[in-house]
Amino acid sequence: MRIPILKLSHYLLVSVQVELDDQTALQFQEDLLNKIHNEGSLGVVIDLTSVDMIDSFIAKVLGDVVDMSGLMGAKVVLTGIQPAVAITLIDMGIKMQNVETALDLEQGLEKLQLELEE
Amino acid sequence: MRIPILKLSHYLLVSVQVELDDQTALQFQEDLLNKIHNEGSLGVVIDLTSVDMIDSFIAKVLGDVVDMSGLMGAKVVLTGIQPAVAITLIDMGIKMQNVETALDLEQGLEKLQLELEE
């Protein structure tokens, strides 16, 4: 199972609408980084609205994806983080520094555009 | 397996990146129509870039989805149709009248915005 990554102009959009098991999360990490490289993307919006909860492994992978994308030059905005997901991320000590958050995909995209125009 | 449907402002974005078997296609049809209804969407972009070929059943479902969405008041733009897909659609007598097409997701979204501004 692969999570689809949509290209829209200089950005990539991802909406996670499946349960994230370990294999899916790692595959997503690899796919996203490859796509950033191939498309020369400036930013990524990852929408987690449909994700009810995550375990510690997925939390780490998510944190890694944000850091890795940043290293490659793509700004990440996470959107729709639910309470249980926020709790797991903070409990795990994953501070998500340098990552913007927003309420939904649309606002995430706007935030990305504003940031990159600066 | 469900195909994720992303909501962006008044539009829905779909990028089909899995092989469309009969069950997946019918589930997609149902999900999309429900989402159009729930979100009050004005338009839908369905990106078929990753779809190499379709069989006659999937071609019919796709044609139906376009017609049904139109009935519900949402304009559909199909993008990234590959040669084999175009051949199957026409061979099946599915003319896709009233449906706009575009090269990729971005151009599809632009087309939709232009049309709806008119």
Biggest interface pair, counts: A-B, 18 and 17 residues
Contiguous helical run count of chain A: 4
What amount of the residues of chain A lies in strands?
15-25%
- Output the strand order for the largest sheet of chain A: 1-2-3-4-5
Number of domains of chain A: 1
Pfam family, one (chains A, B): STAS
Protein name (chains A, B): Negative regulator of sigma-B
Domain STAS (chains A, B): 1-112
Give structural notes.
Chains A, B: It comes from Halalkalibacter hemicellulosilyticusJCM 9152. Chains A, B: Residues 1-112 form the STAS domain. Chains A, B: This is Negative regulator of sigma-B. Chains A, B: Pfam families: STAS (PF01740). The structure is a homodimer of 118-residue chains. In chain A, helix 1 packs parallel to helix 2 (56-71). Chain A is globular. The longest helix of chain A is centred in the first third of the chain and has 18 residues, at 22-39. The first copy, chain A, has one domain: 2-Layer Sandwich (Transcription Regulator spoIIAA). Chain A has 118 residues and is an alpha/beta fold. Chain A has four helices and five strands, in the order E-E-H-E-H-E-H-E-H. The model of chain A has no long low-confidence stretch (mean pLDDT 92).
